[in-house]
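Bug report

Summary: structure tokens for Hypoxanthine phosphoribosyltransferase differ between web form and batch submission.
Environment: batch mode, default settings.
Steps: 1) Submit the sequence below via batch. 2) Compare with the web form result.

Sequence submitted:
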Amino acid sequence: MEPRTIRLHDCEFSTYIFEEEIIARITMLAEKIDTDYQHKKPLFLAVLNGSFMFAADLLKRVSVPCEIAFIRLSSYQDMNSTGKVKEVLGLTENIEDRHIVILEDIVDTGHTVHGLLQKLAEQKPASVEVATLLMKPECLQHELAVKYVARTIPNDFVVGYGLDYNGLGRNLRDIYKIVS
Ligand code: IMP
């Protein structure tokens, strides 16, 4: 595949993970989820905005009966340093005794997922697992069991396939890595 570079705001990015690889990895995740969730009717909670493409491509490939809801998180002042999720917005479903699968674009420090897991636990779901498109294990600051990871990456800033740099880049079908 021909490498491409793009400019978003003041930064340059080059192609890193192509759409074909993304879809192949998502297909493998969907197969695992199908095996693990037979007769469990999972409820997927896709965390907006970043997970919209991942959620769509994953759910097209999951064949067990399931439901999906799209949530947003509001946080205390500086979630990046506290990890405190104040509110889960858009969750109208009753999750008590449900099997929940959180869908995330990327797990970096793990603050977001850690905070969300704490919030969801208050509502007594039967189980909660996390499925993420990308994970940066070097950056993780919490003991998190992330069961479904499509791809691990080093500590590089990436955009595309739902991920943004200050609002731009979410529409890109491949994932790009920052070069400068
Ligand atoms: P956390 O550090 O695991 O809480 O990640 C928080 C959020 O930061 C993710 O859901 C993404 O929206 C964003 N994020 C982390 N790393 C990147 C990246 O490399 N590119 C774009 N967004 C990122």
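Above is the batch result. After comparison, the two runs are identical; trailing whitespace caused the diff. The chain has a mean pLDDT of 94. The chain is about 25% helix and 35% strand.
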